[in-house]
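Notes from hallway chat w/ T.B., transcribed later so I don't forget. T.B. wanted the structure written out for a chain they're using in a teaching module, and asked if we could keep both sequence and structure tokens in one place. Agreed to drop them here.
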Amino acid sequence: MNSTWSALAEPNRFRIVELLRDSPLTVGEIADRLGLGQPQVSKHLRVLTDAGLVEAHPIANRRIYSLRPEPFQEMDVWLKSFNGVTTERFDGLDYYLQELQKKESTVLSQRQNPDSKMEESEMANQASNEMVTTVGELDLVMERTFDAPQELVFKVFTEAEHVARWWAPLPYTIPVCKIDLRPGGIWHYCMRSLEGEVQWVRSVYSEIVRPERVSYSSLFSDENAVPNDMIPEQFWTVKIFDVDGKTRLVSQIKYESPEALKLTLDMGMREGYAEALNNLAGYLKELQ
């Protein structure tokens, strides 16, 4: 399904799909709504048709275009894996503003009550446990601090029996998880919904530096670890820093195009990972 994502990565074709989501349209109607020429729209429709996303229905001397449901049903598996996520979105500006407000509140509190050191410590600890997100042109960086040693965080991020306990956003589970932790080794797992829907994922490790860093690339796959192109390929680098006995986890995901990044964000990647890190925090607490 590489053709699917390649087709959707072009902004005008993405807008055409959004229009056809609401109702079938002719070339002329699409051109009028997007402010494009009909020849340009026809070329985009040809690409979408070749990718299996759109089909044409000849009616009299006109051709009416509509979406085909099958490819979107396949992508729906990904979307459903993030249903029910309640974690707030944090981008760099949101986090900065919240931190600024907390600092100002702390300064005011200290002036009014010099004995408020415990409140300041609790506030700082709470702030450090939130996920901080930075979105670049081709990458997404998500950071969070955990009250656990570096070696333990590395262990639960790289050993199958631990990963299966926290990686899936609730209420999803991971009934199958296999990890061959070496450069060229494969991490292959299955995520299952309450309704029994499953989605397989295959990652290939490229670098492992214990206990500081892991790099790998990820794609959806089948149960035999044969990859497909239902999602844009993701290139992960996970850095694990020791910070005075706690651990700072910095996950950077790179994409091949801005459009691939945008599609993944729209699908809920940021919220789903935040939910997984919440699970991880709870699991680390159980282990200590």
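Follow-up for T.B.: The chain has three domains: 2-67, 91-125, 130-287. Might be a good example for the class.
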